Amino acid sequence: MKDQLELAQNIIEIYKKHARAWTELRGQFLYEKAWLDHFLSLLLEHSTILDLGCGSAKPIAAYLIAQGHSVVGVDSSEVMIEMAQENFPEQRWIQADMRQMDLGQKFQGILAWDSFFHLTQDDQRAMFSIFQKHAQPGVVLMFTSGPSHGEAIGDLFGDALYHSSLSQEEYTQLLNDHGFQVIKMVAEDAECAGHTVWLAQKF
Prior knowledge:
Elements: H1 4-9, H2 11-17, H3 19-26, H4 33-41, E1 48-52, H5 60-66, E2 70-75, H6 78-87, E3 92-95, E4 107-112, H7 121-133, E5 135-145, E6 150-156, E7 159-165, H8 168-177, E8 180-189, E9 195-202
Parallel strand pairs: 1-2, 1-4, 2-3, 4-5
Antiparallel strand pairs: 5-9, 6-7, 8-9
């Protein structure tokens, strides 16, 4: 078995390799809708949302766009970005690694759904400064994590898929340290395919 760090470093290559197959597997069913609606309810109309790990832009970015918002999507996979550009050419799609991202733009909403939890624990800690750098006052941040501190290895078409999580206490502290207040958090939400979701706002 490869060590955890090597598996973590391989995430980008896995999503490049399986981009189209994963997109087909993911499908269009929006099981995240209740969370996305809560996220959007905290935004002004016609906000600009940063979608980290945007994939093909379907179904999540598509839903945000349909509600009248603009999306700037970031993904490390050029195939994902190509699909997003094909799907929504009027939006902005950027191939980049979120860990080294500096877009020179601030956003009303930041979303890292099913992407942030592929980073190592140290990389996750460092992301809060990147969130803060791209945040307008009052920004709404939503991300998914694991339910507790640890690492886990999943599977994507036969390739080992790395995940990690900090503790709920540490996420709360990191959010507070960067000026965010937790609005809602549910661990392993049974109504959202078992996702652990954080919704926070910067006041």
